[in-house]
Every structure is written in structure tokens, then in C-alpha cells.
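stuck on this one:
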Amino acid sequence: QILYLKPPWTLANLLKCYKKHWMAVFGYVVPRSLLSTIECLYKHLCTGKTVDSSTVGILLQESKKLLHAFSSRSDYNGVLPQAYAEVSKLYQTLTEVRGALVRSDSEQDLSEDIMVLSENAVCEKMEAMTPNLQNCEEKKLHPSFHVAQENRHQEIWSVLEGVWNTINLYSIEIFQKLDPNAVTLTAKSSFEEAFLGLQKLLAAVNDIREGISR
């Protein structure tokens, strides 16, 4: 009845409504600290600024955080889990592209190192060059190797976080459907989908556990 901006909303209008009614409404539904997430999304998505890939990753993570927070209230007729899955898919795609770029850069650096070392080997004896070559390789490969390792850690963390958040969303869905007062004929397919999803997640978690053990 009392709203800052009337629908239909654009994304910018929606985020403005969040900010305007945060203390009176939304701050009672989700943690109030998430106002920083709203401000971050508005700053980068609604002010016409261009964003790089690292900023896109941050925005996707902030979006996942916001969606996950609201999942504690409701699944919003299945819209929220679907939105969360799409954002997670986008984040996974971005992570894979980043990883491919880092690997490509690492391979290019390695090829350049090999060419330089081959040219130097013509000028000096192999015995004298061996220690210098090792030092040269370590110095040149270290930055790329460090970036690749750091990216790999972020990728692993993203997978584990995605599994954990998805389990939470499906668990909320199942407990809501198990409530006798909430069960309806139209909710049957959603319940079955949630159950099958948990079976797939169980297999995925087992694969991750075996990988960690190895």
C-alpha cells in the first residue's frame, strides 16, 4: 500500500525500493548487514559503469548471498531456487573461463621460457647453464603458477559453496512440503524434483570427498 516506486520495476527501481524500505521492511526478513550487498549491486549494475571479470564474479557472489538469505523466508513459488541455480551457473561459467585464460597464459609463459633457454644454451656449456636455467625457470614461472593455484583454490571453494547452498535450498523445500498443512497436489512434482536433486548432490559430495582423500 505504501511503496517508494510502483510496479512494474526495472532492476534499478527494485534496488532503490530495497534501499528505501530496508530498515522498515527487508531488514526484518534478512540480516541488515546485507544492505551493503544491495548498495554494491546498485553501484555496479545501475550507474552505467563498465565492469571487469573480477567485478562480475563479486556481483554474482553477492547476488547468491542475497538470494540465499531470502530462501529462509520462502521459495517464492519456486522462482527463488531457479534464480539461484541460474546465478550459480553463470558464476561457474565465469570461473571456468578464468581458469582457461590462466592456463593459457601459463602455457605461453612456459613456451617463451623454453625459447629463451634454448638460445642461451647455444652460447654456453650445458654444465655451466643448468643451475642458471633452474633459477631462471623458477623466477619466470612463479607468478603464473601462483595465479593458477589461487584460481584453483577459488574454483574449489566455489564448488563446495554451491553444493552447501543448494543442499540448504532443497532442504527448506522438502521441509515445507512435508508440512501436512502445506502439501497440495500441485506441489508433488516439486517435491520429487527436490528429492532427486538431493540424490544427485549426494553423489557429487561423495566424489568431492574421494577427491579430497586422494
In short: Residues 126-178 form the longest helix (53 residues).
